[in-house]
Structure formats: structure tokens, C-alpha cells
Amino acid sequence: MNVNDVSFERERPDVYGDAHPKALLRAIQEDGDYLVQLANQHIVSGDQFDQATMKQLFRLAAKIESNPKRFHSPLQNKILISAFYEPSTRTRLSFESAWHRLGGDIMSITDRSTTGIAKGESLADVAEMFNNYGDCVVLRDTNESSLFEMMDALRIPIINAGNGTDEHPTQALADMYAIFKWRPALLDASNNEKIKIGVIGVPNKMRTVRSLLKSLSVFPHAVEELVIIHDEASAAELFGADQREELELRGIKIRITTDLNAVLPELDVVYINAISWEGDTFNTYGNSFSLSAKSPLKHDAIILHPLARGEELAMDLDNTPHNWYFSQARGAVFLRMALLTCMVERAERVIDVV
Amino acid sequence: MNVNDVSFERERPDVYGDAHPKALLRAIQEDGDYLVQLANQHIVSGDQFDQATMKQLFRLAAKIESNPKRFHSPLQNKILISAFYEPSTRTRLSFESAWHRLGGDIMSITDRSTTGIAKGESLADVAEMFNNYGDCVVLRDTNESSLFEMMDALRIPIINAGNGTDEHPTQALADMYAIFKWRPALLDASNNEKIKIGVIGVPNKMRTVRSLLKSLSVFPHAVEELVIIHDEASAAELFGADQREELELRGIKIRITTDLNAVLPELDVVYINAISWEGDTFNTYGNSFSLSAKSPLKHDAIILHPLARGEELAMDLDNTPHNWYFSQARGAVFLRMALLTCMVERAERVIDVV
Amino acid sequence: MNVNDVSFERERPDVYGDAHPKALLRAIQEDGDYLVQLANQHIVSGDQFDQATMKQLFRLAAKIESNPKRFHSPLQNKILISAFYEPSTRTRLSFESAWHRLGGDIMSITDRSTTGIAKGESLADVAEMFNNYGDCVVLRDTNESSLFEMMDALRIPIINAGNGTDEHPTQALADMYAIFKWRPALLDASNNEKIKIGVIGVPNKMRTVRSLLKSLSVFPHAVEELVIIHDEASAAELFGADQREELELRGIKIRITTDLNAVLPELDVVYINAISWEGDTFNTYGNSFSLSAKSPLKHDAIILHPLARGEELAMDLDNTPHNWYFSQARGAVFLRMALLTCMVERAERVIDVV
């Protein structure tokens, strides 16, 4: 075998440069108090933080992404309990990579069937065990309520990494981080910048979409219009109880449509997620929708996708400027590094101004 | 979502203060020689150590529990092979947490079906592999003899974390550590302090009970009476061959009864474990027995339970002073930290007097 | 239980002393340039390196084996993605042990069924995820092509730890390392030393054999003759297309035979591997062949075996001087430590002459 056949390039033209995170970093004034307060909060929902706290989180993520090698040991001697009772490789590795890059150790549970829970142990007892064994819990479970049953007994923080069809808040934070990295001017109402964002999917059935819309509603000044693109079949169950009303109450203007290509030319950001994972199985909502390099996208529009992708997102988009989904996935690691550092009482190790 | 809904308290009134471990620490004079000798021993049985060695182990555990942050790196660059051929989350995480808190790295095997053993590889060959790959092995297997087959080929220490229905010695050490933490005066015969301890279960069928009784028999001066509480169904198979005789030979006075509530008012310590795990299945012995806040317990009696619990231990006991089972579970991590440090030739890093 | 029953010896007479690695170390002049170049190469095939590069790798492995405690942190803050879609305990632990001994962290995937791949995610997308999450990938897959599909999208190095029945190059490097450790004079053509090596197995069906023969062919001066020992049933499919021709083109003289005991008295090195793992199942080729202490081996012949072993290799050989298979397994960890250090741009931390 020829050595040339096995050579590879570590660097190549892509959207991963440090220009964007550095611009975002410059756009936000550091205020460490917001980060220190995160040490006593579980992460449950896409809208649990106010605007100022989210901005500080995005700032810290951008700071880490601008210079990843600077922050290598704040979590030394800290242990993450990575409990994926609903199996997931992508989200699990994203959290575990973030934790390891901060110098921490990890204990993984990747199979619910062999745990005490399967044998009837209460989640409160499991939480009590976690209190003794680790410093932070990341939980994914097909059961929406497991998170809340554990929370009551925990004295260490827990992160909701997907609870049934309910929420997936750190995915939403990563989505928002990608949007602000792309266009930092959206952060401040005084800039008067706004985007039209289209979301392909069913807010009532997809936890990533539900959490994203909640996070988006914390920044209503940045959203000119939110367009939900869905198929006819899901029209009747598009929103959950009060879901639409709460978003509108916060100032989000919502339009719904079933015609993707008609609305595409208007959109600045397109969020696509045509598959909804529900435990071990999945459903396809809007499988009539797909994006490709031939779609009538605005020339400077960006596409976001929580991945893994199916046929709804053509690979011919990967090498176009519309591809921000890879940057979104990469940024999720830095966003989680920022969040985790603060949650386990190590914020002071990464703040410049104390 | 309101931030207050996701806030939590890291500290709260509980039995986890450092008063008890500090009292135990003061009650024992350090003698590091006993700990250094642990570097050439496998951990197999609840009675393999003499009284002096066990006291030094409990002292070191109490020293760590009194100040956990002091001991963070003695196992740096040491690798634990965590081999749970019989799946277990609780015991596995307890060992792995202990190892990580000491600064070591871990390789986990959580599924026997994919190993060479399943394909007919001999346990001696597996042990030879472990010699090359790690510094210590923790083994749980449904097969009682696996431990012994590996031991013969090992040049690194192995810990029995449960071999069939035979033994689970570190659980017993953790049980004893909880008892002495609760009442340090029991350690020395010269204090003339004694307890009545009741054990709900079947010594012949439960590895935790078998190991506990062995460990208990190393301190006969502390036991006024051991009461075995069992149901009629298990009367004929209550003890294994010579099991009762050996305990009595060492000076343990044994009574057996089937009437829990009649004996409860006499007991200082109640050990309950009404479920016996046997591989992937479990049997319930004495399911007529259960403890709750309404049980006629002595006012200062403590309850121990190896967990996970079923219906035999009511949650209304959790917030009573009888609850020492949570302290027992927590202490198990510190006990294992003490043991592991010594086993991999790092005792000198945690001893004050060398 | 008596303490003597649980005592063990950390040291005992064996082939693991440091005399052999030290002799190999002395036999090779350091030239770090070859090692630095490894930072931009995937590890795919047994013959991708030239002789000079392989010698430097063996030298570094011998340097580490001569003094393992000297090299404990070159991979600090580096993350290995250990992706064993085809389950394997032995090879996985060998790589993970090597990585941990260098101070790095690990994320393991031990089950393909729960990954996005099982749900239709492309391997290119998985590779893109790995780019963001880790610093190096070790991949084992039953599918020969998975490796190549990932390689194209990777910006971090990947190691082929077994791709179907194709190759297992680091096993071959470990095999060669064992041979040169045993007899360092074979390294240089000017010494005019040669061995006869017998390989029991089917080069067309066994990835370990295929890779070994390729690696062997990089050192044709050391091979007087290669004898392939096979059963009648596999005569028709013994070699793949061009496999034999390529080896002969490089100067390897090949003989084939079905009579093991007739050829054994001639052989200096016997490589036995009578079982071929193919995904979750295995096939036995040449099950009429086996080695034991009664086999007519040359008095100074050595036996190599990639392990795990079945009935083809009797345990009565373990305590004879023919047993170099344990040394081979042990050396594989050091060989992998050498390779991994170089692949993640840390070669300069272990080279004396820079």
C-alpha cells in the first residue's frame, strides 16, 4: 500500500475557523456573576435562562472555541455520570468529549436493561446513589418524567439530554449559539437586526424543536418571523397546549405553511429535522420535505440540523456556504464545555474578570 | 420555565457530616505496616483480614471521608479493569467512582456475551491479558469459581465484587465501616461495648450476608448477639455447611427467629436484604418481612441495607435517624478508596507516619 | 480464610524481562523524522510503512518497554474514540490500555446496534462527528469498507483494528515487534541472519495472517522461507488475487504444505491462528492442526499466536521457552503506545534527539 493513500489533511477550508467565535466574543461584555449562579441549577428547559445569562454562556463558549487549548483542566478530579437510558451515540459523545476536554473523568451507563431501575429501583434511590458517586449527571430517557423524579433527590446538578418528546435544552442552546456565531449583531435589540427563521417539523412532537422555540423566544427582538413548515398529516397536532400562545405572548410572530419551496426564498435560517426519535423507534413527520443544493435558498441563508440526518438533507449541501449544521455540531461541544464548567462550581477558573 | 423550579441545594441536613468519620479517625492509632501489606493480596472473602488490618483500613477510609479533597492523585497512571460479567450499575459505579476520585483511569467490561470467554477462552488466558493491560481487576461474575480460576494466573490484584451466591467482601467491609463510624467505641474490646445485631435474610443464599457475618466474626467482642431473622420456607437451608459452626467457634452467639417485630425492640443494628440477586434473576427470601417508620425499632437503632431496595424497606424511614443505609452506601466509596490505594502499592502516599 | 491463600507474586520468572527490549533498542539508531511523519497518516495496512519507519516504531516501542514508567503523560488532554462496532475485548483493551498509559482519555462505543449507523446515518457523517469529538479513532467493523468510507471525511487519524477479513495491521506490527525483540540481528540485511517462518492458516481468509505477511514482506532479507501450513479443504482458496505474487515479487520465498509435523523441525518461528473470526461468528480452518509441548519443535523455535486461543494451542506450552505469544500480547501494548504517540502529534515528547 502506498503511503499517499493513507495520508490526510488536518486543516482544510471550512466553516470552522476562529473568526466567527472571536467576533461573537467581542460582541459581549463579560459578566461572570451570571455564570457563577449556574452552579445551583439543573438544566431542564430551553427557556429557563434569561437573556443575560444565555449571552454570558455563548460568550464563554466562544471564548473556548477561539482558543480551545487554553482551558484544559478546570474539571480535574470531577466525575460525570453519563446516563443514557435511551441510547444515543452522538449526544453522549458530545457531552463526554466536552467533559474530557475540561480534564474530568466519566462513568457511562449506556443500557437501562441491566440497571436497578429495570429491577424496580426507584429513581429517587438512583439519584441518591449518583449524589455519592459523581459531580454531575447527564440524563437521556425515553420517559419524560424520569428527569423530574431524579431532580428532587439530587444534590448535584443534572442536565436533561432529552426526556421523551419533551425537551433537549442543550441542543437548543447549541442551535442558538450557532445562530449568534453566524451573526453576532442579532444579540442586541439596539442593532435592529432581525431574521426570518423557518422550522421544518412538528413543535408538539419533537423535543429539539420544542426546546429551540423556547430558547428563541428569549430573544424576540431578533426574530422577524418564525415559519413552521409541516405536512398536512400533522396539521391537527402541530402545537401542544399553550405552546403557540406562549411563544406569541413573548413576542414571536408565527406563520404556518405546508409549502416549503414557496417560503424558502424568504428565510435567513432554515432548521430541518424531519425525523422525530421516540425512544428506540422514530417517526417521520413531513417526509415530503427535503433540502438540497437545488432548493431555492436565499443566497446567504444558513441551514441548521440537529443531526443525525436522513434523506431530508442532501449531502450536496455539505460543501456550500449554507452548511452551518457541521459548525452547529462542532460548536455544541464548546457550548457544553462552557455550561459544564459553570455547573460544577468551576466558573471562576475560566472567567477573566472576577 | 422559572429558574426557581430548577434550583437545588448542595448541602442539607443529613447523616453525611464529617463528625462521625472524624471520631472514628481519632479512635484508631495509625500503623501503616498493615496497609502496605495489602499490596500483595487479592480480596476474596469477608474474613481474610485480621482485626488490626481491618481497623487500619477503616481508619484510612475515615481519614479520606473526613477530608475527601486531600487525596486526589495517588492512583495517577494506574488502570482499573472493571469486569462486570454479571451486570451491576451500583457496585460498578461505586468502585469506578472510588478509582476516579483517586486519579486513576478505567477500562470497563459490562457484557460477558461479547468477550472471548463467551467464545471459549479460558479464564487463565483472560487473566494473562489483564496482567498486561491493567493494575487491578474488579470482578463480578455469576459463576462462583471464575474468581479462583483467574487468581492463579494473575500478577496484579483482583477484588471479588460478587461471585455467584458466595461472597461480596468489600460490601461487608463497607457494612462494618458504617457500624464503627456510627459507634467507634465498638472497635476495642476494652471498652466493653456490645451490640445486638439482627440480620434479615438467609446466610446460605445471600453473598452480602455471608460476607458480613464473616467480617463480623473478626470482632466477636463487639457482638452481644447475632439474630438471624428468616421465613419458614428457608428454615431448612438457612446456613451452609459449617457456616454457623465457624461463626460460633469465633465467639459469635447466634439466635434464629421468624418473628421480626418481636425481636426488633431489642436490636441495635438491623441489616435487611430481603432480595437475593442470583445472576440475572433474583429470589425473594422472607418477603413477609419489611421495615417502615412504624416498625417497633429501638429509638437509637440503625438500619443497614446493601441496596438497591425493594418493598422491604419503606421510604418513610429515609428521613429518620434510623437511616444509616445511605451513609453506608456513601461510606462504601471511601472504604473502597482506602482499599484500592493500598492494593496498587500506593499506600505510602496516604499514610502520615512512614 | 487464610491470608496466604489470597497472596500473589507480582514478579516471577518469565519472558517479560527488559533484556530483550533493551537489546532491540541498542540495535537501532534513533531517527525521529520518520516518527514525526506518522502524524498525518491513517493506519490501514500491514505494508504501508517502509523498513526505516517500521524500525523506528519498533525502536520506540522497545524504548517504552525498557522503561514504561518514563512515558506517562504525552497524550494528556487527548481523546481516543474507541469504536468497536464488531465487539472485541482483547484488542479494545490493548488499545485502551496503551492510550491510558500515555495519559489520554477515552470514549468507547462497544455496540453498533444503538448507533446512528444502525439507523441509516452515513459513515461520512459519523466521521464528521468524530472530527469534532476526538483526536484519534480506532475502528473495528465486520464490514471491510467502513474504514475507507470514514477515512475520506476524517481530519483526525484512524487506525484499522480489523476490517472484516481484510487486515489488522497493528497486530502485524506487534507480531514483527515480537520477532525482532526475540532476535534483533534480523533487522539488518548486513547481518545475514535469516529465519524460516511457518504460518498455520489461510492467508486469504484471516486478516491477522494477511497483514502479517505484508509486514513480513517489508523485511525480505530476514526470511529464508515462508511456509504456509493449511488443510486440504482450504487449498483452493488459500491465497487471494495477487496475494502470493506480490509477496514473491518482494522477495519472499513461499512453500505450502499440509503436513505440520513434517515441517515443524525446520521452523524458527511458528505462527498459529487456526480460528478465523468473521464478525460475530468464526470458522475453523485447519482444525486438524495443533501445537503442544509434544510437537516436534526445534529446540529454540518460538511460537506466536494473536490470541484468544482455542484448542489449537495447548496450555502445556505456556511454561516452555517456545512461549513467545504472551510476550507478543504484552509487547502489543508498547507497540501501540509508540504508534499512538506519533499519530497524535506528540512524537517530539518521546524522542531523545530532536
TrEMBL record, chains A, B, C:
Keywords for the protein's UniProt record, in alphabetical order: Transferase
An annotated GO cellular component: cytosol
SUPFAM superfamilies listed in its UniProt record: Aspartate/ornithine carbamoyltransferase
Gene Ontology biological process terms in this record: 'de novo' UMP biosynthetic process; amino acid metabolic process
Entries under PROSITE patterns matching the protein: CARBAMOYLTRANSFERASE (PS00097)
Taxonomy of the source species: Bacteria, Pseudomonadati, Pseudomonadota, Gammaproteobacteria, Alteromonadales
Limits of the Aspartate/ornithine carbamoyltransferase carbamoyl-P binding domain: 41-179
Molecular function terms from GO: amino acid binding; carboxyl- or carbamoyltransferase activity
PANTHER family: ASPARTATE CARBAMOYLTRANSFERASE (PTHR45753:SF6), ORNITHINE CARBAMOYLTRANSFERASE, MITOCHONDRIAL (PTHR45753)
Protein name as catalogued: Aspartate carbamoyltransferase
This protein's record includes keyword Phosphoprotein: no
Domain annotation Aspartate/ornithine carbamoyltransferase Asp/Orn-binding: ranges: 194-342
UniProt record similarity statement: Belongs to the aspartate/ornithine carbamoyltransferase superfamily.
Superkingdom of source: Bacteria
Pfam families for the chain: OTCace, OTCace_N
Signal peptide location: none
